[in-house]
Amino acid sequence: MVGQFIRSLTESREQRAAVFDQMMEQSYRPAFGVAYRLTGNHTEAEDLLQETFVRAFRFFHRYDQSLPFTSWLYRIMTNLHIDRMRKKHRLKTISLDESPANASEARDVADPHSFADQSLMDSTLEEPLQMALLATNPDFRMAVVLADVEGLPYEEIAQIMETSVGTVRSRIHRGRRQVRTYLMAHYPEICPNEEPEVFAL
Amino acid sequence: MMVAPGNCTRVSALVGAFIDGELGHTDRLLVARHCDHCPRCDAELQAARTIKVGLNQLSAPACSDHLLNRLRANVDHERRTTVRQYATIGLLATVTATAAALIVGGFFAPPAAHPAHPQVARTDFPSEQAYVGDPYAPASNAYPVSLRQ
C-alpha cells in the first residue's frame, strides 16, 4: 500500500514536471529579461533565474492558475531578489574592510563587461538607464521594471508584489523619480538638471 | 494667468499613474488641467513619460543558448532529490508502522495463546468445586470428589 502511494506520488510528480518544463520553456526568456534589469549583469541574472525556477518547481503544486505563470514566477523572483539584496546589505554592513562611505550603500553595481558583449552600447540611453535602475531601491526597481519594461498593469503588479495598487502607484512614482535624479546627477548631457527642487527626494 | 486647479503635491503624486493610464476620470482631468497651467508639474509629467518610454524601449538582453539546458538540469536535480525524499519518508513510515504493529500486537496478545502455560482442567480447582451443586445439601456433599477421597 505504501509502495503504491509512493508510486502514485511519483507519477503525479512526473506529470507536473512535464507541464512545468513546457511553461519554463515558454517563459524563461522574458523572465531572464526581468532578472537582468534587476541585477544588471548576466551572471547574477542567470543565478537569480535558476534559483527562481528551482523554487517555482518546488512549490508548483501551490501555483494558482488565476495568475499568469510569468506573474507567479515574477513574484518568486521579487522575493528572492529582495532577500538577496538584504543579505548583501547585511554583509556590507558587517564588513570591517569596507570604507564607511561604501558601507551604507545597498546599490547594485552593473558589470561593464556585460554591456560590452551586446549591442547595448549602440543605444546612448541603454547604459545610463540600466545604471539608473540599479541605483534605485529594490522595491521601487521591481515595480518600475514590471510597469515600464514589461508593461504590466498596476493590478497585476500588485498581485506579483503582494501589495495594494496604491503602494504600487507610489513605488513606480518614486522609482521613476530616483531614475531621473540619478540621470541628472550622472548623465547631465542626457537629462539636464533643470528643476532640481522638483525632483529632489 | 489662470490658476492651476488642485495643488502641486497631489498632482505630482498622480503623474505616474496618469501616464500609465491608471487614473479614474476625475483624477485624470485634474492632472491634465493642472499641468496645462503649471509648468513645473508639466515638466515632471514629461520627464516621467520620457523615462517610461526609454525603459520600454530597452532591448531584451541576449541570453546564453545553453541557459534553458542549465535550467532544466537544475530543475531535474530538484525533482530527483524530491523523489529520493519521498522514498526515504515512505521507507521510514513502513518501518515505523511495522514496529508499532509488532509492539502493540505483542502487548495485547491473550496470555492463553502462550504454549508455555497449558490450560489446567477446571475440575482440579477444589475451591470452585466446592460451590458446585446444591447449596442446601449437607456439608459432606459440598466437598469436591478429590477431597472426599
What's the arrangement of secondary structure elements?
The complex is a heterodimer of chains A (about 200) and B (about 150).
Chain A: H1 2-39, H2 42-58, H3 69-94, H4 100-103, H5 112-116, H6 126-134, H7 138-149, H8 154-161, H9 165-186, H10 196-199
Helix pairs in contact in A: 1-2, 1-3, 2-3, 3-8, 6-9, 7-9, 8-9
Chain B: H1 8-19, H2 25-37, H3 39-56, H4 67-108, H5 126-129, H6 139-142, H7 145-148
Helix pairs in contact in B: 1-2, 1-3, 2-3
What would you say about this model in short?
With 201 residues, chain A is mainly α. Chain A contains ten helices and no strands. In chain B, 65% of the residues lie in helices and 0% in strands.
Description:
The complex is a heterodimer of chains A (201) and B (149). Chain A has helices spanning 2-39, 42-58, 69-94, 100-103, 112-116, 126-134, 138-149, 154-161, 165-186, 196-199. Chain A has 201 residues and is an all-alpha fold. Chain A has a single domain (2-199), classed as Butyryl-CoA Dehydrogenase, subunit A, domain 3, CATH 1.20.140. In chain A, helix 3 crosses helix 8, helix 6 (126-134) crosses helix 9 and helix 7 (138-149) crosses helix 9 (165-186). The radius of gyration of chain A is 20 Å and the shape is elongated. Chain B has a domain at 8-56. In chain B, 65% of the residues lie in helices and 0% in strands. Chain B contains seven helices and no strands. Chain B has helices spanning 8-19, 25-37, 39-56, 67-108, 126-129, 139-142, 145-148. In chain B, helix 1 crosses helix 2 (25-37), helix 1 packs parallel to helix 3 (39-56) and helix 2 (25-37) crosses helix 3 (39-56). Chain B is elongated. The model of chain B has no long low-confidence stretch (mean pLDDT 77).
